Amino acid sequence: MTTTHHESIEADMHYLQLLAQSFPTIADASTEIINLEAIMALPKGTEHFLADLHGESGAFQHVLKNASGNIKRKVNELFGNDIRESEKKELCTLIYYPEQKLELIKTRETDIEDWYRITIHQLVKVCRDVSSKYTRSKVRKSLPEDFSYIIEELLHESLSDNDKAAYVSVIVNTIISTGRADDFIVAICNVIQRLAIDQLHILGDIYDRGPGAHIIMDTLRQYHSWDIQWGNHDILWMGAAAGNNACICNVLRLCLRYANLATIEEYGINLVPLATFALDAYHDDPCEEFMPKILPGNKMDEKTRQLTAKMHKAVAVMQFKEEAAIFNRRPEWQMQDRNLFDHIDYEHGVCTIDGKDYPMRSCHFPTIDPASPNSLTTEEKDLMDKLHHSFRICEKLKKHIRTLLSHGCMYTISNSNLLFHASCPLNDDGSLKQVEIYPGISYCGKDLMHNIGMMIRAAFETTSDDDYPRDYARDYFLYLWCGKDSPLFDKSKMATFERYFLDDKETYKEEKGNYFKLRDSAEVCDRILDAFEVKGLNRHIINGHVPVHASKGENPIKAGGRLMVIDGGFSEAYHHETGIAGYTLVYHSRGFQLVQHEPFTSQRDAIVRETDIKSTTQIVEMSAHRMLVADTDKGEELKRQVADLKKLLYAYRHGILKERRR
């Protein structure tokens, strides 16, 4: 070691003294170096990327359970022709749904003890395979307390070892004879599910359209390792939870539009005042343009359908009024042209947009005063106060929003992959666009995403932030939802009003921003990756937001492989558009695979009929060599830790620090 290095040690003394508390001897530091170096030689863990779940909790949970078909692939590789196809299907279903499948199997098996014996050995074999890329320590941490010792013993012993065959057999037989077979099978199946996915990335839009956003959130709160890049629909719910009235109205409007009130009901949002108001204010209005979109399997009688349409219209009108209040309060956003109630000739039923007159589909607005069209009536104010209160006091919603805040941000960089939900605002020439997020404060690219994230967090702070006051931050959720330069929207306008009230489809056009026009360009994608300081030879942008129309031949892989768009339409509402039911991008030690899913029928079908989601795997990019932990972000972190520990060793060996015996 040189004098310069010795001086470097002296400069790091404060940190090394702290490190010495964890590794007080040369032996401790050396052992940790050996451990970290060994970890770096293991294969990279499997990452799964999902986008735009939109409340489809059944499909989401199944994809987690089957690891996007990865468990089925491993079962086929491990057992090949040794067991029948029907047995492999049963084994896979057991791994996905152990409690439910066990109940069915026990009703038909004549020799359940023999079945237990064979199945436990098979499950141990699968578990051994999925755990092989992890350290014993990491596997141990994933084991349930009741069976930790037993599973660990079984994973590291083999029947092919004659000296241990009897030992293993006795363990299995004793599990059965003590009546713990069911519990053991459930435990090891859950371990297999957990180890099959090392890290889960959600690229936004958990909420809206489907009925189970709250179930997805409950699932994620228990999940071992995940992150989320917020989507526009997540931001809408976050804005509602923060008390933005326009966001509250938008949330309710979307739930009513898709006849999906399950999540609202689960959160305990009281809609009785809205129903009462709608029946009174719109009692003689057929509200035809507000009839809910009824998805297959969602039955609704005519009376409920009529009530839903009235509630839908009532909250939509309130939404446009609340949006206008914010647009007028924030003129710097230049969105006052979206206050379209100001542009209606109520007497003649005509709306003027960009100097052109369009006939209204209907002009029945009992709560609008043409002299002050954006003012809430006394009844609407009272209703808005009640809805606002209901959202603000909901503890379960607060819990879920805190989870989104603690696990999420606007973007993430993971192993040379830049993840964000929708777009990165660009100028016409493909350069990064400066976007003003607060009067006099503009950013682009990485700084834009970071500061928007800070703005979002400011809305939930108990004390006002100097840079982003809480009231402004709360209003800003609306801009993120529908603002022209929002990275979560990036279109010329949100034509909600036009779609409801005008027949001319020319008015429905929402011109996409430059990111969507230019994202096929490798040069533009490289410019974005450079701006975000993404390193690595094989780097990518991964996002969702805009469904890929696979049925029309659209390719989710763009810009020569630099960009992957993985919104394949998880939501049932999109299936007719995309022709598929979502993508999962899987990044394992050998490269990238894009898994294209067909619609999920039901959990019952999966358990009883053993129907898995039919998935097609497309190899996107394979590595020339198997990626190790050393090749990942985690590997870089471990290398830094090793370097620090070597400095600590130097300090011990040269008497700069004294060893401290335990």
Report on this model:
The protein is α/β, with parallel strands linked by helices and 662 residues long. It has 28 helices and 17 strands. The strands form 4 sheets. It has a 7-stranded mixed β-sheet with strand order 7-3-2-1-15-16-17. Strands 8-9-12-14-13 form a 5-stranded mixed β-sheet, covered by helices on one side. A 3-stranded antiparallel β-sheet has the order 4-5-6, with no helix packed on it. A hairpin with a 2-residue loop joins strand 8 (411-414) and strand 9 (417-420). Helix 5 crosses helix 8 (112-130) and helix 21 crosses helix 22 (470-482). The protein is globular and about 95 Å long. The mean pLDDT is 90.
Task: Lay out the secondary structure.
Blueprint: H1 3-11, H2 13-22, H3 26-40, E1 47-50, H4 57-66, H5 70-79, H6 85-96, H7 98-108, H8 112-130, H9 136-142, H10 148-155, H11 162-177, H12 181-196, E2 199-202, H13 213-221, E3 226-229, H14 232-242, H15 245-257, H16 262-266, H17 272-281, H18 302-329, E4 344-345, E5 350-353, E6 356-359, H19 378-392, H20 395-407, E7 408-409, E8 411-414, E9 417-420, E10 435-438, E11 441-443, H21 445-458, H22 470-482, H23 496-501, H24 514-518, H25 522-531, E12 540-543, E13 557-558, E14 563-565, H26 575-578, E15 583-588, E16 591-597, H27 603-609, E17 615-622, H28 633-653
Parallel strand pairs: 1-2, 2-3, 3-7, 9-12, 12-14
Antiparallel strand pairs: 1-15, 4-5, 5-6, 8-9, 10-11, 13-14, 15-16, 16-17
